[in-house]
Design goal:
Elements: H1 3-73, H2 79-86, E1 95-101, H3 109-119, E2 124-127, H4 129-134, H5 136-144, E3 148-151, H6 158-161, H7 165-183, E4 192-193, H8 205-217, E5 221-222, E6 227-228, H9 238-249, E7 254-260, H10 266-281, E8 285-286, H11 289-294
Parallel strand pairs: 1-2, 1-7, 1-8, 2-3, 4-5, 6-7
Helix pairs in contact: 3-10, 5-7, 7-8, 9-10
Bound molecules: zinc ion.
């Protein structure tokens, strides 16, 4: 190997080393810059995450606070108010509580609501939870029209609701929640229950009387009736319904009249003007359970 070729080779090696060095400098610089950017990205990501987490926590806390405030507003009966409901059949002045069970129904309830509005009469609806879920808008209208929404359980199937005392309370609670949802007011409580088939007698008498105690422990009152039109007894004409009502009133001052607004009770609706007219003639004042609870 001559001197020239040694020198050329040396220059080549030098060039390669310099190139490698330059590449390394570039790579290092790139890595350094990338590192700075990565840290910045990581920091931003952490900050954003923290903001999201604290927003979620804040929202959860606010929701909890709102729920607690609504609970505070929730109307729960006092023992004194339960006593008022228990004494509903006693009154010095003539008064009447119109009650409609087993609704809401799409075919009959809106007609009854129209009529009550026209007559300027407020009533009480013992709704079934299963039907409230079907027609929440109708229940909302009942509420907004100023009628009392009371509780008639969820299923209306005796073997189901009277399978135990707890299932009576469960059906009350399920219906109560359905009503809150329907009227979009979580602070509302139905508070007054009517046993399907009445609170006394029949095959399930023992369960019913135990359930009554359980309801009372949970600050829930129950109400039956002391007059009726017989609209669930197969009475077939308007005249017969009015006559049955007159028979059951028996000169009493305080009336709780049982009627129904289920889908097949069109006769109840068509007889209602005569029922209202008769009660007015006899000097009865129409009342709701709101009025009863507000009484001094
Ligand atoms: Zn019923």
């Amino acid at each position: 190997m001559d001197l020239i070729s040694i020198e050329r080779r040396y220059r080549n090696i030098k060039r390669i080393i310099i190139s490698i060095f330059i590449i390394m400098v570039f790579v290092y610089a790139f890595l350094a810059i990338e590192h700075v950017y990565a840290s910045a990205r990581k920091e931003r990501f952490c900050r954003e995450n923290e903001a999201i987490i604290s927003k979620i926590i804040q929202e959860q806390e606010e929701a909890k606070k709102q729920e607690e405030e609504q609970k505070k507003l929730e109307k729960i009966l006092t023992d004194e108010e339960i006593e008022k409901v228990n004494s509903i059949y006693k009154s010095e002045e003539k008064r009447v509580f119109l009650t409609f069970d087993d609704g809401p129904s799409k075919s009959v309830t809106p007609l009854i609501l129209d009529l009550l509005k026209e007559q300027n009469v407020k009533a009480n609806f013992f709704v079934l939870g299963s039907r409230v879920e079907l027609y929440p808008q109708i229940v909302k209208r009942e509420y907004e029209d100023g009628h009392y929404i009371a509780n008639h359980g969820y299923s209306h199937t005796y073997s189901q609701i009277y399978s135990s005392t707890n299932s009576v309370l469960d059906e009350y609670n399920k219906t109560n929640q359905a009503v809150k949802n329907a009227i979009e007011n979580q602070a509302y409580n139905t508070n007054i229950f009517r046993f399907p088939g009445g609170s006394v007698g029949g095959k399930y008498n023992a369960i019913k009387s135990e359930a009554k105690q359980l309801l009372k422990q949970n600050k829930i009152a129950s109400v039956d009736w002391n007059a009726l039109t017989g609209d669930a007894e197969g009475v077939k004409t308007q005249e017969a319904l009015v006559n049955r009502l007159k028979e059951t009133i028996k000169n009493r001052n305080s009336l709780v009249i049982l009627m129904h607004d289920a889908a097949d009770k069109i006769l109840t609706y068509s007889t209602l003007p005569q029922v209202i007219e008769y009660l007015r003639q006899e000097g009865y004042q129409f009342k709701t359970f709101y009025d009863l609870l507000d009484e001094q």
